[in-house]
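hey so i finally got around to running the thing on that chain from the lab meeting. sorry it took forever, my laptop kept dying and i had to restart like 3 times. anyway pasting the input first so we r on the same page abt which one it is
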Amino acid sequence: MLNRLRPVLICLALVLAALPARAFETAASAAWVYDMTTGTVLMDKNADEPLPPASMSKLMTINMLFEALKDGRVTMDTQFAVSSRAKAMGGSTMFLQETDRPTVSDLIHGMIVNSGNDACVVVAEGLAGTEEAFAAQMTERGKALGMTASTFINSSGWPEPGHRMSMRDLGVLGKRLIEDFPEYYPIFSESEFNFMDRAPANSRNRNPLLELGVGADGLKTGHTSEAGYGLVGSAKQGDRRIIFVITGLPSEQARAEEAERIVGWAFRQFSEKTVAKGGVRVAEAEVHLGAAETVGLVPAEDVRLLVPALVQDSVTAEVVYNGPLIAPVVKGTAVAELIVHSPDLPDRRVPLVAEADVGKAGFVKRLTTAAGALYDRYLGAPAS
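ok and heres what got predicted. didnt touch it at all, straight out
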């Protein structure tokens, strides 16, 4: 039968003899850990549940300002006015006064390093007129970026009913800030900012990992009594970068310890391996009415993925395609899929392309094939 899904079990060059990675038990109430280098989710604990994000939602306000910088609506030297509403914000602030005219650069540093609630309101009012309008824009923009579990009521993460984000959404947002704004991302690793020398007690970056030598370089902490202590973090070691999001920890110390444990686990428990080489055949597919009966299936580029560093079960894989393929087949066309199964990790699905062109068979072969099919259909089956 044509166009039938055909799984083909294959043996990859990489065979690991060791043991499945022991699941990481996090004390966080919700968490999401993601390897950016390979696109692998390493941990998902209640990651899609909308929760109070506290100051971690400031990342969306920062994203909106970065987008305004990117499309030229503002520059780093653009000055914003400070309203009485902004000045009156409590919690963490950069101690803005109504007579101040902070620049975009000042406000970015104030939001990232000082976690300034006042800075967030200034940005919201400066870009959208009111904080309410800005929060609606944040929600709309978040949906467009794939953050489907996020609803913003304000710009700062101040506790309000309905102000919610999932840990996955926060991770997606962190990934965007790293990948799309490389010129501004280094600000997240700055350890101190003291606007007009007004806030020496609030001038230190709260990210507990920045000075531990584990490759951490961002992104944002958060804390309210409702949310507990949380962190959107990122760290880079060698060629690998991870993003992690945790929330619901009972104290600053617990947050710091859990964040350091997650970074160590993510980098030490998994290693990146090449499981298939680009252009090297991993399987064959049947071709119907083709000049050749089969065509090689190859990945277009090297397939690298994370595997548990200590596993007993081998990495296994299968190739699936709707087959047989119908001639002509064009070289480089995606015609199949390689599905790699690795213990304790999500399956990795990789497109496979045709290794070569396969033209249509000549008239005689097509006639012979058709005759054989007719025979099998009407004469080949035994009488009942």
